Amino acid sequence: MPSFDIVSQVNSMELENAVNQAKKELANRFDFKGFTAEIVLEKDEIKLSAEDQFKISALDEMVFGKLAKRGISMKNVDRGEPDISPLGHARQSIKIKQGIEAPITRTPLRLLNPYVAKTGPVATNEGGAAIAFKCPSDNGAKAGVWKDPKPTVYENFGSSHFYNASANSNDGSKGLMLRKVANILNPTKIILANDFSFNCYFDYGLTKAVFEYMYWHDKTRLGYGNVLFNDSHVGYHQATTKSPDFQRGPTWSFLWNDE
Length: 259
Known about the structure:
single chain; alpha+beta; Alpha-Beta Plaits; 2 domains; 5 helices
């Protein structure tokens, strides 16, 4: 099963060390003697300034060399283009990204957290998808059959999402349980993981009770949620309690062999 594409968070101490080493090299560089040049770290942005384009390029190489030596991945570094003034003075911004932006679709509706910091494969309830799906508008689990609800779904379960193991109906033969990537006929349609709010059939089949958390994205409409597909793209969809709408829709499906 493919994992969500995420990378490690940049260590702030290593970032500061890299910048300090670059500053030290700048102070000792013979080719900068008598010239005005500066390297400044402001939170997750490194600002460079120099008297001309040649010098700003030298500063850029200096900083990037130190970042690499401190083990900071270039995937986390957004190298801005130099800004040259009419008088020739040069400035440049190097931004440090704390995680890689997820492949989300920009809409007014909230999707997955756009920045996730995690190294290695995502596993249930451990700082990977659990972070990606932790929803700030989680209304909690105050309704349905819970006898002692906690403030949020996250605090009840340790996550705010489901993996598609059983096709949303406790039937392991229909979900992704024990399936391999090669088995998935349509990875752009088959669900890998999703918000709790999208699983509005959860417990409804037995109790006919709909949990309050099923409305956390939309206070008036049931079953809207974030959905992560097997090809790693993210969508915002609605499921219902009606068969077969809790298992498949026009553009999504929990059933591993749907095409």
